[in-house]
Every structure is written in C-alpha cells, then in structure tokens.
C-alpha cells in the first residue's frame, strides 16, 4: 500500500509534468498523509495541477467523508469496484512525488523505510480522482493512489507498492480520449526494482505532524 509520501523537490514539478501554470505555490512536503490536500496532474493540453484531498470520496457517496480504505485502490479488479469503475474510465490523474514510506514488521514493532528512485528524480503515481458535490453546491475533489504487487526490492518490506508510471506512459494514462480500461490496465505494474532504492528512517515519520526534512534521514 501507500500511506505516506514525499514531494520535497517542488521546483522541478512544473517542468517535469509539463504544467502550464500551477494554481498556487508548491511547498516542499516530507510526510504527506491521508486527508491532506496535495497537487495532482490532469490532462488539459497542456497539463494542469489541481489540489485535491487524499482519500477518494465517490460522487455517489452519502456524505463527503473518505475512509482510510480509499487512499489506495488495488489494481487487481479495479474495474469492478463501485468506487473506481467510473474513474478508471475517464478520471485518471498523476500524483507527483519523489519518494514514499513503507513500514516493515520487526517483531512487535514496525520499522519505517524511505523508498525512492535511484536517480533521485521526480516520478508520478498512477491515480484516480472523483468529484463530490456538497449540498451547498461546492465540489470536493479527492484522489486515490493505485497499488500493485511488490517488486523484488519491496517484497521483504511489504507485499504491495504504489504504481509508479514510466514517464513514457504518463501521456497515455492521462489521455481523456481513452475510456476503455483495457487500454491502460497494462500500465498498472510494479516499477523495476533495479531502478529503485530504499533505506531505514526514524520513527519520526510515524506522526503526520512531523512534516520536516529530518524524516528523510537514514538511520542504522
């Protein structure tokens, strides 16, 4: 799964994802947690950034409240799940990031790890979004990060990992003209383990309020 991630390199987001203009300034984030609002990339010739809340609320929901289970969407069977079968057709997005955290069970405790690309570059999670209309007419925008089975690097830590899109596949993923999920489901696969790296970090990251660079520091 993916329950925390980082977007510390905000200076490179606009160029990396070919954004014409951001709605608001980007602030480096070192410990993004569910329910928080973060930028997502949508296709708009050129692309645009929109701020959405992490934790998908389906348009048909009875109340504007996300559950922890909707921060991630399993790639397997995604076209059958009520919350995702509409978004997978025409409400796909990319979530900019430069790393994420995962916890490995060690006896009675859990050791957090930071996972990133070896080259340190920005990447994009495959995501879905939905629009919930509040009684007052305002719209709540929310997103989820798609997960898949773990690659060889991640397998010893967790059996799931977020879907990281290859840069060459991002345009296809965002293409609003593609409404047949069969055309984009092959993109939902584990990222090559040899292109990634990880290291243990402090349990400082366990608390969402610790959104500080120190959460990225390696520990022995």
What this model shows, in words?
It contains 3 helices and 13 strands, in the order βαββββαβββββββαβ. It has helices spanning 13-16, 87-90, 170-174; strands at 5-7, 29-32, 37-42, 48-54, 72-74, 92-97, 99-106, 109-117, 123-133, 139-149, 160-162, 164-165, 196-200. The longest helix has 5 residues, at 170-174. It is 6% helix and 35% strand. The strands form 2 sheets. Strands 3, 4, 5, 6, 9, 10, 11 and 12 form an 8-stranded mixed β-sheet that branches. β7 (99-106) and β8 (109-117) form a beta hairpin. 36% of the residues are buried. The two termini are 24 Å apart. By secondary structure, the protein is mainly beta.
Report the helical percentage. under 10%
Order of helices and strands: EHEEEEHEEEEEEEHE
Low-pLDDT windows of residues: none
Strand content: 35-45%
- Counted by DSSP, the helix tally is 3
Q: Kindly report how far apart the N and C termini lie.
A: 24 Å
Quickly give the structural class.
Answer: mainly beta
The largest sheet is: 8 strands, mixed
- The backbone outline, from C-alpha atoms, is globular
**Mean pLDDT level:** 93
| Radius of gyration, CA atoms, in whole angstroms | 17 Å
DSSP strand tally: 13
């Amino acid at each position: 799964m993916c329950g925390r991630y980082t977007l510390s390199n905000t200076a490179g987001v606009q160029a990396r994802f070919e954004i014409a203009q951001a709605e608001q300034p980007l602030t480096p984030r070192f410990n993004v947690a569910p329910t928080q609002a973060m930028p997502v990339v949508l296709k708009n010739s050129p692309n645009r950034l929109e701020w959405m809340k992490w934790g998908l609320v389906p348009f048909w929901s009875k109340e504007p409240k996300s559950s922890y289970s909707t921060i991630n969407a399993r790639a397997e069977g995604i076209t059958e799940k009520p919350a995702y079968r509409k978004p997978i057709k025409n409400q796909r997005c990319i979530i900019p990031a430069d790393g994420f955290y995962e916890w490995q069970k060690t006896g009675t405790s859990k050791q957090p790890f930071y996972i990133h690309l070896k080259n340190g570059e920005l990447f994009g999670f495959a995501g879905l979004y939905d629009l919930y209309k509040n009684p007052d007419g305002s719209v709540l925008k929310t997103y989820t990060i798609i997960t898949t089975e773990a690659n060889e690097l991640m397998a010893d830590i967790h059996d799931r990992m977020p879907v990281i899109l290859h840069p060459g596949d991002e345009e296809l993923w965002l293409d609003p003209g593609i409404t047949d999920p069969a055309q984009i489901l092959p993109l939902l696969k584990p990222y090559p383990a040899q292109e990634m790296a990880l290291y243990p970090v402090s349990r400082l990251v366990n608390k969402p309020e610790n959104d500080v660079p120190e959460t990225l520091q390696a520990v022995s």
